[in-house]
């Protein structure tokens, strides 16, 4: 293989400080979701995988393994009640023991028959209170676990025209979330996820980034939008939404995944890797202009791929993409943009995108003291065999 | 209310024979699906409904009730193994007792872990044989129940680029189905359903009408395509597909429902009733040109509406739409088309579509000896209370 | 035909005051676009129509004719420079003579080679100033014509990734429009139209309602969003956007049309009339809750239908839809929503939608002193023949 | 830069014969369209470019220049009547002089007012004859120019429901094309392009690959389908369509371009380069299984990029993609597919896709005797300055 310095010579633009790139890559952080390690599926079938994690303890173990081989996935997001335990300090200790931090807390507002017509937006005030209560319970858990991110995906919506009143629901949501925000501590942030459709099939109360950002503006600086890559209309320009949210100071976090059709929850970058690069291009440009405070999280459902392996692959896809985005020659790009040289602008992005960043990532992994090929390292490790043996 | 003859005067074009329209409406047949009467949901949650049918006996009871109030839903489709029983003659007798016929048999190729990488297209010949075997078992059941429709929805596809070879899968499918066709009796028809995506999220082996019709041409005259209204790309012109399939003599059946986004399985006509009218406009035109042999079936999943009530509503939506399509003045339409009078053509369709067909449907129901308002009749009947009391 | 009082008995819910409905319909106002009367087409071909208006004088004549037969289209929107004249008072007098008011002024930021890389967002300050200057010129024309609506469709966007910087363009747009707003008089309103794509094919600077409403919030109460029905991603729930804009007090106007695929500019209601009804359902509900100040405008391009005839048809489609929306029994609807009776809610909307409102519209037209069948009246009038004879 | 043999060692799988890859790349042929060198635009504006070709002679000159720097674009497609000349032998000589071959002949069925309601499908037999006559004229031109490809894009469709009868139009099209096929010489092939929508906005007579392939089957072995990458519904799996057409022996040609929304006619590979790779992956797999006879053509409209430069970029994008597809280790891929190792399958494709193929392409260009960086070579050449000086 090419020596690193030879690689740099042909691949790193003069304007780019490769040591800074390496530092950025070492400091990159991606949170994996506890729910990504258990069996999952479609409405038609859940394929059971031998060795898939059966409880939160095993899920954290898996997450720790992903971090062990990638070096950049040090925390796991929890989902309540799926990850609910009686003894939070015990869970906290377990996490420390296996080597994983606990990250964002995700309330669940979709798995109770009471929410058939909505949770925080339900016409019935008692149901809304139940949903608000669950969110407050999540805030209590955040206090137990020193988490500072409350990550809300609101599944509310209607299935049929006329079923409920859009404006009334909008106001109920605003009121419900104000109550939750009041309950939160000052260091806590509420992330507001939006989604084009599903599980509601006629309207969704928070269907797009516009709804989320308007709501976040009303709720104040501790409320921000969360972008899930699978939650947009077909052909939406997600990188533009990312840029606009940065400009509005309302980009709070990501749920990474990919899709071809709907919210397919496929491996991030598996369908349109260039789109992921263009998103990271906005993030790298944003970082170049000032500090960003964004939670990078994966939200995927590997129905047919082995769970831990697929998560390793996902983390690596993101890392590779970030590396490429850091190689964009921004100074020349700005100059070409000013000159209106459309082909030159595009080729500057493509040059970075087409770069084989393997030598750079090897150098980064060397610096982190991990195997240069994490996916093979995982495949060859004892862990895939171990999980087949662990109990339920 | 307007007298029927007054209604006719303002609403029935001179060229249309209203008695024939009434006969068509009396003879209309819509099959309801046994699986539409049990609890259903999304991948996020199945909302349980008090009184939802718990077994095939209750499901047939419900289907019979829909027929009782609508008069045009005399049969129910079965799904194997969901409706599997040891004693088929007993089920047949039960059906006769509650007053329902048994219709299309639907094999299930999606709920077995063996099918993770495909059923009839699986790279592993043993899995393909298992799937073929299940379809033959369904043919055996058809013999037991005197059914002549084998209605195949192939859920096969892949989730990731490279996962399998498109052309190999295409050929495996052709071979598998040839074996099934050989096993079928001469009076039996294979309906081939296509679907744009889900549960596979990268490619689907039978993704569009083109794939289905090419396959049906290969399999011979006893193989036809089945159109599910929710299985197309956004903006697809379904009425054109219906017309093309009629022209190719390959339109075997429908799965009625509606959607706004993906395969939402909402009540037929609830999102775009004009599209349903345009589809029926093609069907009525096709009938005017010669006999059609099409199985009209509903395939819906009423996650939040009461099951039986929603099915009554669905049958009525289809009936209303067919009634309107029968009122199109086709002779004048053809003349306006020849003259290129675009506005006149459109207004001829709209005139029929805008007609309030209530008096016509009352007359039809009177002739069938049922209540003129089936939905209210159902709501006021003892049945909704009864289902709450029946066991599991 | 049914007498009006008989019609009312079967069709008007008890809670609805039919006299108020009639008043609403008499007061309905729809503005037609001057550019809808001239030849138009696709990028592939402009089909020339004999008799299509050749200049602004003829276009206003046509608009006046549409008003003459419909009674509810008293004004025409102008497009600068297409409708530019040297002598504005003369145009104003001509308008009064033919019986048409002058409505919204629409600047043109897409037909100058200078705008190749953007107008109000162009990287080059000189081009931005040119665009701002054109908008100020339009404000001057508004003063000449006593118009109070400046209706901006911003065509800006990019065709290729990297071509320009999203955030810089966003800020340039905000600055440019602040300058325009400063130039406007206090009674003037800026309508901000958004569009998903076209003529730019990678990103559009104002691509969705979220962008438009955030911008309008920044620009103050005299800036509002304009909803063009053809400018959304496929499957977007436009009626929800309308409701949200009402709730944000940012719904300034409509551009009515319809589409199946992209921005097809077809006759309003011709593809999905139920969607139009659901939009009007929100408008009627909004009116019931308080005064709305919305400019209802048509923006269509009748490439193959005769121009004036198509515009009459369009106005009538909107009128019919509004009539149906006014017949919704809102009190019972709210009650059913509270009870979570999904089927009842839906049937309440459907009851209004399915109503044949011909007798009601006849009554309204009688009150306005016009022919009860405006389309036939137009077809039979001398006007279609007249336009064939007028010069260029 | 890395030596070629070092590059091979890290980048060429053992199973791949790099000399064969180089031969394939040297033999690659991409046809550019004469109409891609003149001014073009959207329905809103055509941006004029200084130096854009003004006539067929200049267009061929431009095409020759693209071939000169890329080495793999030896022919140009013609469009009749845009490229119509009185003296065909003179044009043929001019082409030879500038160094370009004449390729597919493209009839124009969309730019005549007669075709307002259709060309080959028009309800009026006289219009159909006019369209058939134009196609026969194109066959005559093919004889003059020794072309053997008649490349039909049928723009026919309707804008409104009811405007015409789907089945009648289908039959008229079949009849019209049978007449054209009868007129063609035995060595000539008819390529049938399909398109989801535009310029018709309600239905398109050849809307999808299914329609095209059914028609091609009816017309016999000399009729094949042509895939334009921008002519599909959003999210369609084009690589699957390509594979199916290969399997049906009906893949006749490509129109390369890219799009994000509709038929945007952007530079091939500019929006989703991985999709282009997956398409080429099918082509390379098809070639590995047997000879393919496919016409690879570009169909783009560079509204804001300089014409020749954009075409060079496009040819290079295709070449790079083909190079990557040739590096896929197909033997291991088949083995991984058999084992159902989804991650391994995907990584095999990704390994090839992520390869920096610059050294390979340099080697290929060296063998062809051209500059290793064709885009820079073009930019630095005299040609961009020359075109600014040539007359009209």
Structure description:
The structure is a homotetramer of 392-residue chains. With 392 residues, chain A is of the alpha/beta class. Helices cover 48% and strands 12% of the residues of chain A. A five-stranded parallel beta sheet of chain A has the order 4-6-8-9-10. In chain A, strands 1-2-3 form a three-stranded parallel beta sheet. A two-stranded antiparallel sheet of chain A has the order 5-7. In chain A, strand 2, helix 4 (88-98) and strand 3 (101-107) form a beta-alpha-beta unit. The longest helix of chain A is centred in the middle third of the chain and has 21 residues, at 125-145. Chains in contact: A-B, A-C, A-D, B-C, B-D, C-D.
Strands across the major sheet of chain A, in which order?
Answer: 4-6-8-9-10
Measured by DSSP, the beta-strand proportion of chain A falls in 5-15%
Low-confidence stretches of chain A: none
Radius of gyration of chain A: 21 Å
Provide a count of the helices of chain A.
15
Q: Largest interface by residue count?
A: A-C, 54 and 54 residues
Total number of distinct structural domains of chain A: 1
Helical residue percent of chain A? Answer: 40-55%
CATH superfamily of chain A: Divalent-metal-dependent TIM barrel enzymes
CATH topology label of chain A: TIM Barrel
Quaternary form? homotetramer
Taking the sheet with the most strands of chain A, its summary is: 5 strands, parallel
The count of DSSP E runs of length 2 or more, i.e. the number of strands of chain A, is 10
Structural class of chain A: alpha/beta
| Strand and helix order of chain A | HHEHEHEHEEHEEHEHEHEHHHHHH
CATH architecture of chain A: Alpha-Beta Barrel
Termini separation of chain A: 44 Å
**Mean pLDDT of chain A, as a whole number?**
97
**CATH C-level label of chain A:** Alpha Beta
